[in-house]
Amino acid sequence: MKVLSIVGARPQFIKAAPVSRALRGLGHHEILVHTGQHYDDAMSAVFFRDLDLPPPERDLEVGSGSHAAQTAEILRRLEPVLLDEAPDVVVIYGDTNSTLAGAVTTAKLVPTHGRRPQLAHVEAGLRSFNRDMPEERNRIVADHLSDLLLAPTPAAMTNLAREGLAERATMVGDVMVDAHQAVTATDPPLPEAGRTHEGYMLLTLHRPSNVDDPDRLHAWLSAAAAVGPVLFPVHPRTKAVLAGTEATVPDGVVLLEPAGYRDMVALESQARVIATDSGGVQKEAYLSGVPCVTLRHETEWVETLETGWNRLSPEPGSLADAVLAAAHLPHETPRPPLFGDGHAADRIVAALERLVMTPSPAGVAS
């Protein structure tokens, strides 16, 4: 089986690593395509090293840009790669512009011979029900174009059934559990900042709605400082906003360079509480057994809210109360295995094998 995997951003590198190992371990031919959506060492290369992910066979080097410009450039550069490689199946991950472009390019591909590749979406069925989020639109389009929907949770399967996609869907568990277990088994050391700021809150912010307005960004930092100490690995997008304003970072907020996967897992595991607007970090908090506060009006990971391990704080003014409540979560609070058993990658590969051996489902463009 020839598989072309499309990645472009931090969460996708994490998800692709266990699947890549499983594919190659069974002798399948994988072509890893990096769109270049995240391209510097701190947001890209370090994850390949930390996760033992092989270097990409193709790098589209798209870089930054508006949603339209970035997506269009991936479309333009990806199509000849698909035609040249002629894979049996294309695998896309998550909900980024790379996901959207991979889905559209594959679904509309017109090969010079043979049929178009099958399309499989890992982490299908997630819904925040907020159509203003670019990620929500990306994941909906990707799901409706895909031949195989690889869902991480029962809630995701329910969402897909509600949209008439149940026949294409299978629940495999969450591949991020596989990645998390692989790293925690090596007991990664805590970075120095974590050792020197006991009882820290770990903060991440990168969504445009939270960081593009300097006043709102500084309101978040001020609110975080009030419940500090705070360790804040700064996303490049957020760093650019901070650099463009004269406002100072509040005392108690320690700025860090973006953390690689091993360092981030170590920082998460030792935090008193995690505050984040990242979907992936919410899940990593749960897997680490650390209470989380999500700095948004909604989350895709509704299961973590229902267990009490996650809570929402959509505005800076509500952060202090949310952090206090999270930090006092009773130790006996159940933390069931919501996201699977760490064998999602094996199930994904088995589902891909079945997909390649069957024709495209009715109603899906081919």
Largest sheet: 7 strands, parallel
> What is the radius of gyration computed over CA atoms, rounded to a whole number of angstroms?
20 Å
What percent strand?
Answer: 5-15%
The assigned CATH architecture of the largest domain is 3-Layer(aba) Sandwich
Shape summary: globular
Report the CATH C-level class of the largest domain: Alpha Beta
On the 0 to 100 scale, the average pLDDT is 92
> What fold name stands as the CATH topology of the largest domain?
Rossmann fold
Helix % is 40-55%
What is the β-strand count?
Answer: 13
Number of helices: 16
Number of domains: 2
Question: Would you kindly provide a written description of the structure presented here, covering whatever features stand out?
Answer:
The chain is α/β, with parallel strands linked by helices. Helix content is 45%, strand content 14%. The chain has a seven-stranded parallel sheet with strand order 3-2-1-4-5-6-7, sandwiched between helices.
